[in-house]
Amino acid sequence: MKKALYLILIVAAALLLFSCSFFGGGGTEARTEAVPDSTSTSPVTEAPTMEATEPPEGTETETEVPTETETATAEETALPGPPEITYDVNAHLGSKRVLIDAGHGFADPGCTSDYLNGVYESQITYEVATLLAQKLTEKGYEPVMLRGTDSFPSVAEIRAAVAELGMFSRDDILYENNIFDAYERTLWGNVIHRRNPVALMISLHVNALPTAEYVRGTELYYTVDNGCAEPSAKLTAFIETKLKTAFPDTRLRTEGCVWNDSYIVTKWTEMPSVLVEMAYATNPEDAELLFDDAWRDKYTSALAEAIDSYIATRS
Ligand SMILES: [Zn+2]
Known about the structure:
This protein is of the alpha/beta class. The protein has nine helices and six strands. Strands 2-1-3-6-4-5 form a six-stranded mixed sheet, with helices on both faces. Strand 1 (about 95-100), helix 3 and strand 2 form a beta-alpha-beta unit. It is globular. The site of zinc ion (ZN) has 8 residues, from loops.
């Protein structure tokens, strides 16, 4: 009896040691992510739609913002996470490349409003992203634009890259509705990063909340539960500080997202990442700023300075 008990204890200890090292104990670089609860209400993705009613991105915990329309959207677009992703969480260290994700594009124009005079989010994000790229170049960085103005990777190209690099992908949602959406762009960003590491990915978006036009300001989102959670939080903190200094009177909200209420571009990314909802298209004052060259200049300068400060602390 005693011998059997010792044997059981030895086997149990060995199993415990194995599982600790496999799941990232002892400072290993790889990290395995847990399966998120697909029954919960929130991962929010942006609806690929031509309408002016983009889901209110990330407003679920904002007490001042009505949430009734958002809940329905979240349920419709709920997306289970990957069962397991293993990647080098330190690949970003030392890189001077900055991946800029200009939100939406091509068949997915993003949001608009009566205040944007027929212009859509995808055009604004691309113009601001281009300005940010210039400023980063001036600071000695190599900006990499995740999308261009007239081309994007095909399903076949993404599939081939994913296979070549041994990455995880979900074929069932790859190019759903023929849209290069949050999932595809995150996957493509990871491909770019695995081929030649980037220091970080910054996603630029314009927010919209037609049911509450008074809501304005910037919102920042980052993940708190993937392998790059810690540097993502630091990056976001630098951006928050610089934007607060540049625009002291503007509302600024920052949220660390767990999987169940996070965006794909902050969660499935394999590098430090931040989602910047620059301003609200549905607020008249914010909408005016989005076209204001002086505002764009100041805003992208703050972002570039924040990125510069963040990278300086990491390399
Ligand atoms: Zn957007």
